[in-house]
Every structure is written in C-alpha cells, then in structure tokens.
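Ticket #4471: structure output looks truncated?

Reporter: J.K.
Steps to reproduce: submitted the chain below (553 residues) through the standard prediction queue, then opened the result file.
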Amino acid sequence: MTDRNRWLRSLAWHVILLLGCVIFAFPFYWLLTTSMKERTEIFVSPPKWVPGIPETVVSSPYASDATYPEPAMPDEMPLPFSEQDMDRVLDRLHDRAAELQPERMALLDELEGGRRLASYGLFTEAAAGLPEDQWEGSTDQVTDSLAARITEELVGKVIGNVLRGFRIRGVTVLDQTQRVYQSPGEQSIETLQAASTRQWPSGTDETATLMGYDFGGADEAIWSISMPMPELQDDFAGIRLPMTGDKSWHVLHMAIETPEGRYESAEEYPLADDLTVEWSWMLPEADAGFRKEKDYTDLVRAEGGGSPDGNLRITMTLAQQSLFAATMDKFTRAYSEALRYIDFWRYLGNTVLIVALSIIGALLSCSLVAYGFARLEFPGRDVLFAVLLATMMLPAQVTMVPQFLIFKYLGWYNTLVPLWLPPFLGTAFFIFMLRQFMKSIPKDLEDAAKIDGCGYLGIYWRIMLPLIKPALAAVAIFTFMQSWNNFMGPLIFLNDERLYPLSLGIYQFRMEHDTEYSMMMAASTLMMVPVLTVFFFAQRYFIQGVTLTGVKG
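Returned output as attached by the reporter:
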C-alpha cells in the first residue's frame, strides 16, 4: 500500500469516526439547546437549531420584528405585487385592522416601526389561508380577498406578536394563612424615574396599566404604587401582582412598605416573556406547605419603619440588563425555573445516598463472593456457580412481586432500604466478571502470602482487592448508572415525595409540566450531567476493567 493510499484510508476512517461522533452527540445537543429556548422557539418551521439572542430593548412599549420581519407568502410563493402595489396593499390591510381595534392599532402606530411590522403581520396571516385561485386576479381583487380575511381575532393575534409592553393589574394582599384581600380603595401609580403609565388598550373588559420606561438617560425605571391597606385577619405575608412582561429581560425589584414594616424582594424577577402570570412576593415562612411548588419570590424584612400614612406602598424598580446578562439569563432561565419547581436538592440527596450505599454494597458483596468462587476449593463450588449464572436468565419482572411482598413484610415499604439493600446481596453479572478477573491473577502471589501467614480474608483484602481495581471501577460505574437511573424501584417502593430520587422526581415534574419543554429538558440535563461527568473521568478504568476481564496473565 502506497503512502497516498494509506493517507486516504486514514482520512476516511477519521471522517467516519467524526461523523459518528456528530450523530451520537446530536441528541445531547438537542437536549441542551432546547433547554435554552423560549416556548416560541421550539415549535417553529423551519426548526431553530441555535437558541436566539434576546432583543436589545431600551424603551417600552415597543414593536418587535421577531415574528414578522417581512411580509411572507404561503408555501414560498413569489409576491404577486410590485413594490408600489405592495405598499398600497399593506395600507389597505392596516386600515381594515384599525377599524376593528382602533385603540391598540393607534398605540402601535405611535411606536417606531409599529405600523410597518403590523402591516407585515396582517399580510402574512391573511395570505396564509387564502386559496390559490384568489391570487390570480388583479391587485385590487387580491387586496379585497386579503382584507376580507382580516378579522378581530386575526388582528389580536398580530398585535400580540408585534406589540410588546410591560403591564400590571390590581394588586392583592396575602396574609399568613394564604387568604387573599382586595384593597378597599383605588390604587394610584406615581412615576418616579424614567417611567410612564397609561391605560392598556386591551379591547376587553379587563383593565391593565401599561408601565412604560425609557433607559435612554437612566439605568433604572421606578414606579410607586399606593393603596389603602386592607384589614387582615392574620399577619401580612406578601402581595400578588398579575402582570405581563415585554420579553426585555430587564429585572424587577420590589420594595413593600406596610404599617407594620418594610420588606424587599430577595431576588430580582426578569421580564422574560409576554405571558400574563399572577406572581407573588411572599415571606417564605408564610408558605408552610400551602404551595406544592414555589411559584413566588421570597420577601425579606428590611431596615426602616413602615408606611407613615398607614397605606400599602409598593416601589417597583426595573433595572436595565446588558445584552450579555440578558442572554445568560435566557439560557439559564429554564434551569432556575426547574430548580424552583423541583425539590432538586432533596431529590439529589436521596439519590446520592442510594447510589453511595449501592456502590459500597456491590463492591463488598460481589468481590467477596467472586473471591470465593475464584480461589477457594469447596464441594459443589462449580454447581453453585452454575446456579448463580442461571439466575441471570430470570427477568426482573418475575421477581418483582415476590421482592415487593418480602420488603413490605419486613416493614421497609416507603423507605429507601429496598433501593440500596439488594446490591449488598450480590449481583450475578458482577460476581462473574470479578471472578474471571481474579482467575487471571497468578497463584504465586497467593501462595507467598500464605507462607507469610496471611489468611484467606487477608489475601482477599491485601492482595486481591488492590490488583482488581480496574474491575472494581467497572462494577462501581455500572452500579452508579443503574442506581442513578433506577425508576421502577422508586415507583414501586416509595409513596412519600420527600423520599423520591431524581428519576422519580423528574417524572412527577414531567406529569405536571408536560407542555413546558424547556424546563423538562433542563431538568433532564441536570440529571444527566453527573452521569456524563462520572463516565468522562472514569472511562479509563471502565474500559480497562472490561477488556482485562478473563485475560490470563
């Protein structure tokens, strides 16, 4: 074989290996990138393979070009209009929408690029459902067909995709028993810095206040909300504020003054999306198990006296985020939300306890039994070893019910014992693997130890275990992966959520948040990272332990 052919063959193998790495790494890439996407980036066509960067928002409300950057025809059809005719079509569609929702369209027209982006959206949405035969008429006929498709619902969809604004509704008060109180009087909003307010033209009976801001000359926008304090049956615990974000990723800080004292939010709340949520700022001791998930931001008591006039006063400070900080918040938001809704550290502690005890049990029991089968001579040894190997042919489903009945009879149901005790009883595959490894060790070492007066347990502990470290590492890695990913065992034996490991905790999270794919992918990534980390650092021992098993030395 010439050098050129050898070089081409080597190059081909490297390309094949690289392609295989890309194929096998793709699911992990998809998992990681999906955890960094917003809901609007997941179900789109064509798919977005790279998470988007947040828009740079200096002032709000604003018109976003994220959904309709240009007028789009269905099925990549060419535009049937000239540029001049297109402007006339867009004006006609805009006028039709302004007839249906005049206040909201007027607000869009005030914003930079608002009229243009709204017109693009109206054309795109109307064109998507227009039959092909209606594109064959004159410009006026096609325009009439498009305008006929402009309904109030379609206008609302376009405005919702283009118009972004931070808005709030009426504040309610919570006491220590989770009772909700409305203020007996009107709430007033005062603008203190780089801020403005106006009535939100929602087009419905629902009233909201549009909280405008402009960071052109300041880094913070500040509003002050004042209202009469309701009479509470118990101590003050927090507030609840229905609000809609503007996808700016700027962060909101709350300071609350009541007649009894002053409180501040322990962390900042990002205006991450444009969904309407009822978020709470609450003292953590007021939760007391009322809420299954932590859907609130902690309040902490701050220095200073309470409200001097006896009213409830809320100071809202919106701090500007840099593009880098906003991007990092976007990419990590699903992880922080998953950690908020999952009792992650409790589940992780349970999992670590199960995994650690399982590894210890597997290493001790399997190595000791394997030593007996490999080195000790006793009647019936080979028969017992054959019986041991025969147990590997029994499916786990066959022993599932008897095992459950035994552990329940012993009083270990709804405890962690059934999850870590079985490895202490040995595993047939690991015993077989360690036995084969021990049989490859020269007997001269064992004989020399016996001459020096070492007993069987001494030989096992001082000679065998140090020499079979690669095989023990392989057993530890296999046991770690099996215990870490064990789902059926916790599902059968556990009923108390406080005892759940990560596998069962994330399953329960999926059942409750099955439509929040970013959070699901983030939770799955958090569970997968320790396994990948262990395998990455221990792969040398894993490969060495498997390849050397059964090799005669």
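Triage note (M.O.): checked the attachment and the full token line is present. The chain has a mean pLDDT of 87.
Status: closed, working as intended.
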